[in-house]
Inverse folding.
């Protein structure tokens, strides 16, 4: 652990005091506060949802008539929002798309907070992160409605610019956000795509 790293920093403590499951809730809150990405009543998908910080914020944004679906390799329990459903699933498993479609035929927005286990190698960590973004984009190509929203965490590093260009093929607007709650030592940022334009993405991604 590098000098100066505090796993229980101000955002961690704030999350505990405000009832959020993770400090990541403040990253998403800042992104959604800076631009109107979600509307009440929407159906949204959260990939890499454990322990549930994003799910809590998304449930607040879509309101009681909205729906939130969370997917993670780990089981997520105890969420109070009636419109929230969680699945144990792997984004590398193509059968996940069928499960998502059984719940809702289309989604208004797809969020991904997925991140790989880090190795300390910038190139390796970036490549693994970009793979997860590719899978989130692939799943979006199957379930996201035209005009929908895509937000995905990514590590900056080799191949980052090329990945952003790939996303721009499918969205009218793509911006890079780095919320204040992001740790200063982190290479992560969030890619925000608006106005989805369906394209023939490779099924083998």
């Amino acid at each position: 652990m590098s000098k100066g790293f505090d796993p229980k920093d101000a955002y961690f403590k704030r999350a505990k005091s405000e009832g959020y499951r993770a400090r990541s809730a403040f990253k998403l809150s800042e992104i959604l506060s800076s631009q109107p990405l979600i509307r009440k009543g929407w159906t949204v998908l959260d990939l890499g949802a454990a322990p549930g910080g994003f799910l809590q914020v998304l449930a607040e944004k879509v309101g009681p008539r909205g729906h939130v679906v969370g997917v993670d390799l780990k089981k997520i329990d105890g969420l109070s929002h009636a419109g929230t459903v969680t699945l144990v699933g792997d984004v590398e498993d193509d059968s996940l798309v069928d499960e998502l479609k059984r719940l809702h035929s289309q989604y208004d927005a797809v969020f991904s907070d997925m991140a790989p286990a880090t190795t300390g190698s910038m190139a390796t960590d970036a490549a693994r992160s970009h793979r997860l973004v590719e899978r989130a984009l692939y799943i979006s190509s199957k379930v996201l409605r035209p005009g929908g929203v895509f937000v995905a965490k990514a590590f900056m590093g080799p191949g980052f610019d090329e990945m952003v260009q790939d996303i721009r093929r499918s969205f009218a607007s793509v911006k890079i956000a780095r919320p204040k709650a992001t740790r200063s030592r982190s290479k992560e940022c969030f890619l925000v795509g608006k106005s989805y334009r369906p394209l023939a993405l490779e099924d083998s991604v």
Remarks:
- Residues 122-143 form the longest helix (22 residues).
